Amino acid sequence: GDTTPIHGREPRPGGPEWIERYRGSLMNTFGDPQRVLVHGEGAQVWDADGNRYIDLLAGIAVNALGHAHPALVKAVSEQIATLGHISNFFTSPPQVELAEKLLALLGAEGKVFFANSGSEANEAALKATRRTGRTKLVVAEGSFHGRTMGALALTSKEAYRTPFEPLPGEVTWVPYGDADALRAAVDGETAAVVLEPIQGEAGVVVPPEGYLRAARDVTREHGALLWFDEVQTGVGRTGDWFAHTPSGVTPDLVTLAKGLGGGMPIGACIGVGDAGSLFGPGNHGTTFGGNPVATRAALAVIDTIERDDLLTAVDELHRLFVEEFSSIPGVVEVTGRGLLLGVVLERPVAADVMKAALDAGVIVNAPTPDRLRIAPPFVLTSQQARDAVAAIRSVLAEVLP
Ligand code: PLP
């Protein structure tokens, strides 16, 4: 790859040395890191050897504003210099402003609970569903809702679940996107239906038109909650503030994280209408949730998306990626919306493509054997997008002859 030095500094010595030290000091939950990254700017990152990468993954749909965005740096720096942390016996203006802003974007009345990650936002929502007096949950096959015990109970992948059984909860699994199966599974004992409006970890799977509406209708009919996990899809990632926005459906619970803080750890569980009152004093809590720095960062992310019209940029980049990827031999289909895309390959070589793309200076990932996931920063330039696709085109020509 390109060995552009990091701002003229000498590249730091040796990725391999850091990986050795990583092995010696970190729990092996992900296997060896692919690279040691030391710097980021816009949609690019640099490794410890000074190699440059176009980042089409953005920390898995997190860095919406890219790396080191001045607005985010300013907001976080100012806030930590003013009031960095307080306990939940108190509040601070950014926390209140962010809750109000999220409800305004959702176009609904309700209440927000702040957490520190997607899993934690989902743990809050899961606990909230218990306040209905019902325990049964209807969850889609292929779903990913996190790795903590409650969230894992709602995550379908056997390899993640089996080593940790028994998991809490009473879950009925339904095939994703099948409205009839959903109608058949929901009854008067169902506490909630839990859905990703677009499944992310499953490989960017978009449900058929009308599916979210059908989920709303059947949950309403049986007095069950409708919970959309927008951890991966929310905050502009799909070209709308929420992936469910175009469906016109109003859910009862929405969970957010990833893109919300632009890299600062924050999650949110939004209860719409009556669902905003499922928790009362003493029901739930976390030390860091709603922290002034994290909430101020999220406000800066949302403000910058609005000010710089980044949702339009997301749509434009979407069109560019679909056009460019669709013209590559060996690419069968491009799924997804906005800047959450699945590139479906004709053979299960996604892991090899991911590795070779990295060597060529492009970061993507492979959520399934035959799919690449593209989830870049919204500030990616069209030139960077074209360069990255050109690199992947060459890689595919080698890997897929
Ligand atoms: N829900 C969805 C839809 C996700 O994609 C993820 C993470 O990939 C999570 C929940 C878990 O979020 P976190 O990794 O922040 O705990």
From TrEMBL:
GO terms for molecular function: identical protein binding; N2-acetyl-L-ornithine:2-oxoglutarate 5-aminotransferase activity; pyridoxal phosphate binding. Pyridoxal 5'-phosphate binds at F144, D229, E230, V231, Q232, T287. Binds 1 pyridoxal phosphate per subunit. Its main location: cytoplasm. Pathway: Amino-acid biosynthesis; L-arginine biosynthesis; N(2)-acetyl-L-ornithine from L-glutamate: step 4/4. It is found in: Cytoplasm. Its cofactor is pyridoxal 5'-phosphate. The keyword Zinc does not apply. The modification N6-(pyridoxal phosphate)lysine is found at K258. One of its GO terms (cellular component) is cytoplasm. It catalyses: N(2)-acetyl-L-ornithine + 2-oxoglutarate = N-acetyl-L-glutamate 5-semialdehyde + L-glutamate. The keyword Cytoplasm applies. Keywords: Amino-acid biosynthesis, Aminotransferase, Arginine biosynthesis, Cytoplasm, Pyridoxal phosphate, Transferase. Belongs to the class-III pyridoxal-phosphate-dependent aminotransferase family. ArgD subfamily. This is Acetylornithine aminotransferase. The gene is argD.
